[in-house]
Amino acid sequence: MRYTKPSLNYSEQADLVISRGMICDRNDLVRHLQSIGYYRLSGYWHGFKDASENFKPGTDFSVIWKTYTFDRQLRLIVLDAIERVEIHLRSRLAYELSQVGGAFGFLDPANLPRLSENQHQQFIDKCLDAYSHSRERFIEHFKSIYGDEHGFPPYWMLVGTMDFGQILTLFRGAPVNIRNVVSSELGLSSKVLESWLICLNTVRNICAHHGRLWNRILGIKPVIPKD
Asked: Which tens digit of pLDDT belongs to each residue from 180-221?
């Protein structure tokens, strides 16, 4: 099917919204369309529409805007919480894995036995990319002092360049005993913790890219502990 919808200016967008039954101050609506965008705001008023694409009686833009600002505040709160999980996992995994495999143990696939050869290589490639592009002072210092001998920093520095997805891969690939140590400290099984981390990774990406978190279907389901 060919896409034929035209590009509308802000005034035309406002007129379209009002013609469909939205209660609002037109100037206020135009101002928000300019700063936020029609398409982004439409995600918050979609649930207020009927089958004919008109707004249900009584739909007021002030409610849509309050919902939008609530979602923005929700993302900030959720990111703050996820940051604590991410930093904790970085610290614990770097410690436990380096104690067993050494400072550069991640380079040996045997130290991340739950990853396939291809998965391990993809993980190393992502780590190298993150390390190469990092401008953190501790990374720049390591490169200047040890870069002639080492293409990677030790575990405890490398995890500081990883995103949540790489931390998740590190947990997935870790030996069973280390997975159990890290998860049991949190009162969880490794299976439950991994499922939560998968979910949190998705949520974090939504928040980090300013996506809509309110009323969002994630498409993944974290495991609920039996106890």
From this structure: 999 999 999 999 999 999 999 999 999 999 999 999 999 888
Distance CA 202, CA 104 (A): 29
Number of other residues whose CB lies within 10 A of the CB of residue 49:
16
Give residue 12's identity as a one-letter amino acid code. Answer: E
Name the nearest CA neighbour of 68 among 46, 83, 50, 52.
46
Q: Give the integer Cα–Cα distance in Å for 4 and 43.
A: 20
At 137-151, the pLDDT tens digits run: 999 999 999 999 999
Quickly list DSSP for the chain.
----PPP--HHHHHHHHHHTT-BS-HHHHHHHHHHT-HHHHHHHHGGGB-TTSPBPTT-BHHHHHHHHHHHHHHHHHHHHHHHHHHHHHHHHHHHHHHHHH-TTGGGSGGGSTTS-HHHHHHHHHHHHHHHHH---HHHHHHHHHHTTT-SS--HHHHGGG--HHHHHHHHHHS-HHHHHHHHHTTT--HHHHHHHHHHHHHHHHHHHTT---TT---S--PPPP--
Which amino acid, residue 75? R
Torsion of CA 98, 103, 107, 109, to 10 degrees: -30
Q: Which of 110, 105, 107 is nearest to 93 (CA)?
A: 105
> CA 158, CA 161: separation in Å to the nearest integer?
5
Sorted by sequence, the CB contacts under 8 Å of residue 38 that are 6+ apart come out as 8, 13, 17
